[in-house]
Design goal:
215 residues, alpha/beta, 6-stranded parallel beta sheet, 11 helices, EAL domain, c-di-GMP-specific phosphodiesterase class I (Or its enzymatically inactive variant), EAL_dom
Length: 215
């Protein structure tokens, strides 16, 4: 069986305008899995979905999510729909409207990859998102690049001022964890928390995870 890594597969999906269908399948399959495993659903604090450019322009997506929530009875507050910063820059009005509609459903939203451009700082403060996810490129140089530290601190101040929550992504080891903790970042995400696993292997036993971590 041939396999194709995401960095090769996803651009093809975008090119042939199939990203909306893919996003909906991911959402549907995940919610069905959680519905079949209520113990896992009740223990879940954050379930993130990466949205494609196509979904950001899809005005019917909130209605699709709303119907899925009605059918499954899942807690919408545990679902977070993540918007890539570059897409938010190019489709700001659509993103703002989507965030508002998802909030009406009780869902959360996140600005993913903040800190890679000056425009992403403005959006971090102005978009009605609940989470600001710091870009891995920004966090990589915290120990030897003073400007990265200043930029990360700026995002943390924006979050504190606007009542948003920060997430450090791609935290791979304890050294990286300690660095982001000094900034006051609220949560971490990455292999230091847990290695990526297929959805079917995800179980509800979270006893081995530390507080302040997102699986």
């Amino acid at each position: 069986m041939l396999t194709c890594p995401p960095r090769e597969f996803l651009p093809l999906i975008e090119r042939f305008e199939l990203s909306r269908r893919l996003d909906r399948q991911v959402i549907k399959q995940t919610l069905c899995h959680l519905y079949r495993h209520p113990d896992l659903a009740s223990a879940l604090g954050y379930c993130g979905f990466n949205l494609s450019r196509g979904s950001l322009q899809d005005r019917t997506l909130p209605a699709f999510i709303g119907r899925a929530l009605e059918k499954t009875g899942l807690d919408p507050a545990s679902l977070c729909f993540e918007i890539p910063a570059q897409h938010a820059i190019n489709f700001t009005a659509e993103c703002r409207q989507l965030c508002r509609m998802l909030r009406q459903l009780g869902c959360k939203t996140a600005l993913d990859g903040a800190g890679t451009s000056m425009e992403s700082y403005r959006l971090a403060g102005r978009l009605p998102v609940d989470y600001i996810k710091l870009a891995p490129e920004l966090l990589d140089g915290l120990h030897d690049e003073p400007t990265h530290l200043v930029m990360a601190e700026a995002l943390q101040r924006i979050a504190n001022t606007t009542g948003k929550v920060t997430i450090a992504t791609s935290v791979e080891n304890d050294i990286a964890r300690r660095r982001v903790q000094t900034l006051g970042v609220h949560f971490i995400q990455g292999r230091h928390v847990s290695a990526p696993r297929p959805l079917k292997q995800l179980v509800s036993d979270t006893g081995g995870q530390s507080a302040g971590a997102i699986a």
